[in-house]
Write a structure and sequence with these properties.
- By secondary structure, this protein is mainly beta.
- The chain is built from 2 helices and 8 strands, in the order E-H-H-E-E-E-E-E-E-E.
- The strands form 2 sheets. Strands 1, 2, 5, 6, 7 and 8 form a 6-stranded antiparallel sheet that branches. Strands 3-4 form a two-stranded antiparallel sheet.
- The longest helix is centred in the first third of the chain and has 5 residues.
- It is elongated, with a radius of gyration of 20 Å.
Length: 130
C-alpha cells in the first residue's frame, strides 16, 4: 500500500481495495495530436487505498499475531495482548507517463495507521503496464 514502507502488515491472509482517478492533462488541454509519447501519456492521479493483512480467522480475531507480542526472558515468558487497528488506509496523488517504453509512476502518499496520519512517503516505480 502506498503511504507505508514495505511490510507494514503481514500475515497469511490479506485484503486490499484501491481507488484511483487519472486525468490525462495534456490530452484535455491541447486540441491537436500530440507527437511526444511522454506528454501524450502524462496523467495526474489521485488515489485512496485501504487494506489489511492478518494471521487467524479475521483481522480482529484474538489469535491474530499482529495483536500479540511474546517476550521470553528466562525464567519469565510475557504475552502482551493489544487492540491496535489492523486495517490501514492511505491517500495521495501521483504522476504517470511512458518513458522509453516503460510506464513510470511517482506517488506521494500519506498513510493512516490506527487513526494517526503518518508523514509523506514517496514511491517511484517502473513497469510495462500502467
Amino acid at each position: 500500500m502506498r503511504g507505508f514502507f514495505y511490510n507494514a502488515r503481514n500475515g497469511t491472509s490479506f485484503a486490499v481495495i484501491n481507488n484511483e482517478v487519472r486525468v490525462p492533462i495534456f490530452r484535455y488541454l491541447l486540441n491537436r495530436p500530440i507527437k511526444s509519447d511522454f506528454i501524450n501519456h502524462l496523467q495526474v492521479a489521485a488515489f485512496g487505498d485501504i487494506g489489511a493483512a492478518w494471521t487467524g480467522s479475521d483481522p480482529y480475531a484474538a489469535d491474530n499475531s499482529f495483536n500479540r507480542l511474546v517476550i521470553s526472558r528466562n525464567p519469565l515468558t510475557i504475552t502482551l495482548n493489544s487492540t491496535r487497528e489492523p486495517i490501514l488506509a492511505s491517500y495521495g496523488f501521483g504522476l504517470r507517463t511512458r518513458l522509453l517504453g516503460y510506464f513510470v509512476r511517482a506517488d506521494w502518499a500519506w498513510g493512516i495507521d490506527d487513526g494517526v496520519t503518518l508523514p509523506q512517503v514517496f514511491h517511484f516505480s517502473l513497469s510495462l503496464d500502467i
